[in-house]
Amino acid sequence: MAVDSMRCPACGAPVSMSFGLLYAVCEYCGTQVKQTLSESEARESSNDKSFIDAISAAIHSIEGKDYAGAIKYADKAEDIKASDPAPSRVKFIAYLPTDFKKAVSQYRIAVSRRAEKDSVAMSDEQFMAVLGVFCRNYLEDRDKDIRRMVTTMGRIGPQDIENVRVYEFRKRGEDYETIPELKQAMEATAEQCLSECESSMSNAGRMDGSGWKDLMDARTRCLYRLATILFVNKALASRSAECISKYDRAINQKWEPLVKSSSMGADKRDLKNFRAESSAIFNWVSRYN
User: How far is CA 77 from CA 45, 106, 111, in A?
Assistant: First the structure.
């Protein structure tokens, strides 16, 4: 929203002052023009800054998986500006891991408030971006679930992964799919993660000095992710299976001979375990291919 009456004090040209800004630059002579605020406008501007700072802190908390902290900052923001949809949007995301009923309640409040006015701190695009952060956190936690299972059991099979998927779907995934924006963000994030894995797996096949490290990085960052992305987007099964195949080819065709000849600082048992892991994941992914 521009201030129509603003004029440059140097040349008299009209100056458009965007809503929320205290300064603008004259397009004609370059003079900095300051907007004069009334006492109430100055107070509102100060409140906006405090509100935006609280929402920013809440978003940083979500990025760090501190969901309780995010709720605390969102409550603080809501005390400042109760009609803005941003606090409820933040609390919707922050409640998702632990209390879906509360999350839905905050989602409905946010939708209602968003219908009345835009947020001064969180656009629709920013809301989807923060949802994407939550989705990455979610997939990372599911990776850890499978890693813990491998650590506990030593070896895993396709049915073990399926058991994790079914449990997770019944516990949270089934509910998550009922929220259109969350379902959209989950599917989009899964595709982004798959693209990153495809690039990483391609690097793992290089026959240069850093190739073994790239292979280990690909295993650490991508192997389990290629399974967990299907928890939220089964349409990616074909690409996921091809990505795992690239990983297997890198092990079998390029790195196994070097390991056997002791040219690499790796144990032969490592390759055996790597194959067993990727085989279990590939066979599970193939169910949805």
Answer: 14, 14, 17
For residue 162, what is the enclosing H or E element?
Answer: helix 158-168
100 band by pLDDT with thresholds 50, 70 and 90: very high
Q: Considering only CA atoms, which of 229, 232, 209 is closest in space to residue 221?
A: 229
Residue with tokens 């096949």: 205
Distance CA 132, CA 63 (A): 10
Give me the pLDDT at residue 238, please: 95
Higher pLDDT, 87 or 259: 87
Residue with tokens 């099979």: 157
CATH of domain 39-122: 1.25.40
pTM of the model: 0.79
What are the tokens at 239? 């690409």
Helix (H, G, I), strand (E, B) or coil at 24: strand
Distance, in Å, from the CA atom of 50 to the CA atom of 61, rounded to the nearest integer, reads: 17
Find the length of the chain.
289
Two structure tokens written together for 177:
């799919």
Q: Under DSSP, is residue 23 helix (H, G, I), strand (E, B) or coil?
A: strand
Mean pLDDT score across all residues of the chain: 84
